[in-house]
Design goal:
By secondary structure, the chain is α+β, with helices and mostly antiparallel strands. It has one domain. Helices cover 51% and strands 18% of the residues. The protein contains 5 helices and 4 strands; from the N terminus they run E-H-H-H-E-E-E-H-H. The chain has a 4-stranded mixed β-sheet. The protein is elongated.
């Protein structure tokens, strides 16, 4: 999916689980530090190993968030197939410090840039689909966001 959709994860979304996984990584799994990173570790007064572990934790965090973003984009594309405004996600981006994902969607009615609140993003990603009413509610909520972004109002 990530080949078709440009997913941009800015910042360092590191969780405790990411950090714990990096802390338990073998020395051979740590990234090789370049000169700038070696200098940064020296200035911060931390070991090369600890600096490498922090980079590894950041990598794990970005990959975890990227996986969730791919799942969201896939679910959103499925929702759009059955909506009044047929379209497809072309870019999904989260900027540091923002509590929204920006989904750029191409539709037959034009391009839309949709601001998806983190709570709704998480609800869509974590929805197992076994509660049809809840899933339909999420679809309606997402369709409404897309339609408002296209200045179509609520067509549902």
């Amino acid at each position: 999916m990530s080949d078709l959709i440009n997913i941009v994860v800015n910042g360092s979304p590191v969780s405790l689980e990411d950090w714990s996984k990096a802390k338990s990584a073998a020395a051979g799994e740590l990234p090789v530090l370049n000169n700038a990173q070696l200098e940064a570790a020296r200035r911060l007064g931390i070991s090369e190993g600890d600096y490498g572990r922090s980079l590894l934790a950041q990598y794990y965090g970005v990959e975890r968030v990227r996986g969730r973003a791919e799942k969201f984009a896939s679910k959103l594309n499925q929702m759009l197939l059955g909506s009044p405004v047929v379209g497809q996600v072309v870019k999904l981006e989260r900027r540091p410090g923002e509590q929204v994902w920006t989904a750029d969607i191409g539709t037959q009615a034009g391009a839309a840039s949709v601001q998806v609140p983190m709570e709704l993003f998480d609800d869509v990603v974590d929805d197992p689909g076994n509660n049809l009413n809840y899933t339909k509610w999420l679809q309606t909520k997402m369709n409404s966001l897309v339609q408002r972004s296209l200045n179509l109002g609520d067509v549902a």
